[in-house]
Design goal:
Largest sheet: 3 strands, antiparallel
Radius of gyration: 13 Å
Helix content: 25-40%
Structural class: alpha+beta
Shape: globular
Number of helices: 3
Strand content: 5-15%
Number of strands: 3
Length: 72
């Protein structure tokens, strides 16, 4: 992601390079928020099945994301 996004539910601001939505996929949760652009943004969308394959093929990525989820 490039730019700034704001979670409209809790006001959390996501900055360049951060990921959004991975927790919902990893923990099989429904998305409970919307995002609003605070600046011009470039984003990419990774489909759920592709994201799950990445986690399966690269367990170190999954481990890092789980560490970050514990931190939050």
């Amino acid at each position: 992601m490039k730019g700034l996004l704001c979670n409209t539910s809790n006001g959390r601001v996501y900055q360049k390079g951060q990921m959004v939505g991975q927790d919902e996929i990893m923990f099989k949760q429904d998305r409970k928020y919307n995002l609003r652009s605070l600046s011009e943004c470039s984003t990419i969308k990774i489909e759920k099945d592709v994201f799950e394959k990445i986690l399966k093929d690269y367990p170190e990525i999954q481990f890092k994301l789980l560490e970050e989820a514990d931190f939050r």
